[in-house]
Amino acid sequence: MSDKIRTQEEIAARVKALESMLIEQGVMTTQAIDRMVEIYEHEVGPQLGAKAVVKAWTDPAFRERLLADTTEACQELGIGGLQGEDLVALENTDTVHNVIVCTLCSCYPWPVLGLPPNWYKDPQYRAAITREPRKVLREAFSFEVPESVEVRVWDSSSEMRYWVLPQRPAGTEGWTEEQLLALVTRESMIGVGPVAEAA
Amino acid sequence: MATATTLPPPYTDPAELSRARAAVEQLVCGLPGGPTGATAGQDGFEHPWEIRSFAMAVAAHERLGFDWAEFQGALVASIEAWEGADPATRGPWSYYAHWVAALEAVMAASGLLEDAALEVRTQDVLAVPANRDHHEAHLEPIAVDPAS
After folding, report:
1. What are the Cα distances from residue A124, in Å, to A75, A102, A131, B69, B119?
2. Residue A3 domain flag
3. Which DSSP symbol is given to A91?
4. Do A52 and A37 share a structural domain?
5. Using an 8 Å Cβ cutoff, are A86 and A71 in contact?
6. How near does any CA of chain B get to the CA of A161, in Å?
7. A186 in the same domain as A96
8. Residue A179 lies in a domain
9. What domain range is A32 assigned to?
10. What span is annotated as the signal peptide, if there is one (chain A) (predicted)?
11. What are phi and psi of B109, to 5 degrees?
12. What CATH number should be reported for the domain holding residue A133?
């Protein structure tokens, strides 16, 4: 790149020119580019993960399958993964709370949670959550994990992507799937926040 | 506009979307970030040209199968050049500006792009008013599929 400063208009024009030239050269088609753009435009978002969580809350047999083989159980719900890229659901209990991080870059269980939030990729989060998880949860996320509960931090990689199965809140017996879905937050599936309170 | 019907279908199959994303993610995972911690494809795109350039590099790689390390090296070189430049004269930080530069470098090295030609084409684009053929109000529907 020449080191002259370009305005947004100039660089947008240059990219447009580049695109038209590469298309003429047969390097790519507009469709190929659009298709790639589409991957990022139509985000799956965390609602797929929420669906799996609610199913696990309401269907004990599914919960068993989910914990035994998360990738396979997710496929039952049409949540796609890739071969060799395992999803692992970590169940929170009365004594264990799980948190996920990717210490190297930003490996994230995107088939269930969509794109990672920006802070997830922040080197500060990645380092601090490993060093002082309880403190980070409290100070950065205002999320207090009782001292009686062990906090486990899991390192996701591109081969194995963790996500958290939060506990079903008390007082939600007999709730419909829709009501339950509204409780499951993205933060609760990363492990940095609670599920919403049962109103 | 006769070719409009050949557009590929959207990613309705989650497994296919999943494969496509994983492939992209694998490409970008090892790329250098910027001084702001920016990482390719994962931070929001601020401008439409950014996502276009991002997609173009991946599409070119898919089509031509060049060694991704080549692109990576060009990206590193561009970022380093910026970092080493005089802060008074260099442009503001833009991760995707380096991405564009890297793509240009790789295409030029493959003999598929000439910088001078690109410059000319860019000026052409800039010379065309954005609304050249669309500068007046169109008050009527431009197509009607009548009721039967």
Report:
1. 34, 12, 11, 28, 41
2. no
3. E
4. no
5. yes
6. 12
7. yes
8. yes
9. 8-41
10. none
11. -65, -30
12. 3.90.330.10
- CA A29 centroid distance within chain: 31
Q: What angle do CA A66, B42, B104 make, to 5 degrees?
A: 140
Evaluate whether A164 touches A189 at the Cβ level (below 8 Å).
yes
Tell whether residue A105 is among the known ligand binding residues.
yes
Task: Report B:62-121 residues touching A (Cβ under 8 A).
Answer: 62-64, 78, 81, 85, 89-92, 94, 97-98, 100-101, 103-104, 107, 112-113, 117-118, 121
Task: For strands A86-91 and A160-165, give the pairing.
Answer: parallel
Distant-in-sequence, close-in-space partners of A142: CB < 8 Å, separation ≥ 6: none
A28 and B63 in contact by Cβ < 8 A?
Answer: yes
Helix (H) or strand (E) holding B9: none
How do residues B71-128 score in pLDDT, each as one tens digit?
989 988 998 898 888 888 888 888 889 889 999 999 999 999 999 999 999 999 888 8
ipTM for the predicted complex: 0.75
Q: How many domains does chain A have?
A: 2
